[in-house]
Amino acid sequence: MAPPARYCVPGSAGSGHCGRGAGEGRPGAVRSLGPPGAGPGRTAPWQRRPLSPCPLGERLCSTEEATAGSGTYTRHGFIFSSLAGCLEKRSEDSGLPVVSVVRDAESQLLPDVGAVVTCKVCSINSRFAKVHILYVGSTPLKSTFRGTIRREDIRATEKDKVEVYKSFRPGDIVLAKVISLGDAQSNYLLSTAENELGVVVARSEAGVQMVPISWCEMQCPRTHTKDFRKVARVQPQFLQT
Amino acid sequence: MAAGRGEAAEACVGRVVLPGDVLLLPARPDEDGERLRLGAGAAPRGRLLCGPGLRRCVAGLLVTKCGLLRHRQAGGGGAAGGAYWVDSQQKRYVPVKGDHVIGIVTAKAGDVFKLDVGGSEQASLSYLAFEGATKRNRPNVQVGDLIYGQFLVANKDMEPEMVCIDSSGRSSGMGIIGQDGFLFKVSLGLIRKLLAPKCEIIQELSQLYPFELVLGMNGRIWVKAKTVQQTLIIVNILEACEYMTAEQRKQALAKLSGH
């Protein structure tokens, strides 16, 4: 009697056999998940040559065989790919090899919680400011992400007296810190509630770059008009004394 | 007409200036183009006020609107060095903070009313911005109502915000404009003329019939008299005032009061 379709750890001796069992699809039997990608004549994905194409959602292997790297996630004791790209298996010195899926030759740098990002203000509101994230740390991003700086996250002190119009204007370059990745619909949530965060570059109405004169004011060198901004303090390592 | 290089500002006062003209200001000895004076000091002595239609540039003042150049001498003892501005005709209204305007309610969105004030964006008005309004005691505002209020926030980067109370919390004449009456639009120059103190037009009209009048800086006027006919007569006179001389206006009013 043929063994019923059941879980098989890929790479084990019976993988081919189980594959055939699953492929037949016996009527009435509960169709359990066969070995990933297994079927007659197919090899498990992680045994293929490195950097082979890998579709989205493919189950790669179990967590006992390898650890999940970037571009993958674990569910029910198995590792699935969360990107459509190339499968990469790296062997670590300690413990299991690391399986990851990469989209391009170099991996996309995603802003993480606590990272300092450089962004450009695109629109302001009385409650928040919308920004485009251009750089993460000192690495430029290939495609800009969108972020939001809420009114209460602009300053650390006197949060209810903050006016967004006196802190940012559209077109300003701002250093901010990521405080939340947001949901599927919402953008990254950013904060400038530190001395070293805030507006770095701003242009006046005359189109000239303004000079900061205090933590809340900038002055245009041509028309000498003062504008309010939440100015970032220069970090001590960049000051030349 | 100012030359391409630039003419002295004093010479152009009272003349027509066009956008792009550069008006030269007399050079001040203590001003240094290279260095920027910082600090919390007050405006330097003899500082010029740059009014609507003008912008500062490297050489002096750059004209951005066409019209007549006006100048006001410095006030006695004041630190200001006088003001220059351009008197121009305009029909399109640009929201300015502190202006009193008449808005038409177009939508109610949660706690906020959206008003059409004739600008590029609709203004928002919170329901708490009325005198005596609380969360329980909401004002009775419907779509299509007329509201007389002032701008709290008005700049080119954000949508304008209106309120119907002043800084002390009193309405001082602002709020929902009552039923009946007639709303019409005129140019901004006529509104400024009507709002001048001791305006002759208003005084002469009040001799004719008693009426209620609300003037909005966005070019909108609301009139209400006892009968519809009287209201329409006042509306027609106000609209025609823009192009009538004082003599013609007196003749027209004399003809009407004779009837």
Topology:
The complex is a heterodimer of chains A (241) and B (259).
Chain A: H1 15-24, E1 52-54, E2 59-62, E3 67-68, E4 72-75, E5 78-81, E6 85-90, E7 98-102, E8 116-124, E9 128-136, E10 139-150, E11 173-180, E12 188-191, E13 198-201, E14 211-212, E15 217-219, E16 226-228
Parallel strand pairs in A: 3-7, 10-12
Antiparallel strand pairs in A: 1-6, 2-5, 4-5, 6-7, 8-9, 8-11, 9-10, 11-12, 11-13, 14-15, 15-16
Chain B: E1 7-8, E2 16-17, E3 22-24, E4 47-50, E5 54-56, E6 60-63, E7 67-72, E8 80-87, E9 100-109, E10 112-116, E11 123-126, E12 146-153, E13 161-163, E14 175-177, E15 182-185, H1 188-195, H2 200-208, E16 211-215, E17 220-225, H3 228-240, H4 246-258
Parallel strand pairs in B: 1-3, 4-8, 11-13
Antiparallel strand pairs in B: 2-7, 3-6, 5-6, 7-8, 9-10, 9-12, 10-11, 12-13, 12-14, 15-17, 16-17
Helix pairs in contact in B: 2-4
Short description:
Chain B: GO terms for molecular function: RNA binding. The complex is a heterodimer of chains A (241) and B (259). By secondary structure, chain A is mainly beta.
Question: If you consult CATH, what is the topology of the largest domain in chain B?
Answer: OB fold (Dihydrolipoamide Acetyltransferase, E2P)
Helix content bin of chain B? 10-25%
Cα separation of the termini of chain B: 48 Å
Could you give the order of the helices and strands of chain B?
A: EEEEEEEEEEEEEEEHHEEHH
- The SSE string of chain A, one letter per element, is HEEEEEEEEEEEEEEEE
Arithmetic mean of pLDDT of chain A: 80
Unreliable runs of chain B, pLDDT <50, ≥5 residues?
Answer: 40-45
| Domain module count of chain B | 3
Share of β-strand residues of chain B:
25-35%
As a whole number of angstroms, the C-alpha radius of gyration of chain A is 26 Å
Q: Give the strand content of chain A.
A: 25-35%
Termini gap of chain A? 85 Å
The computed structural class of chain B is alpha+beta
Rg of chain B, Å, rounded? 22 Å
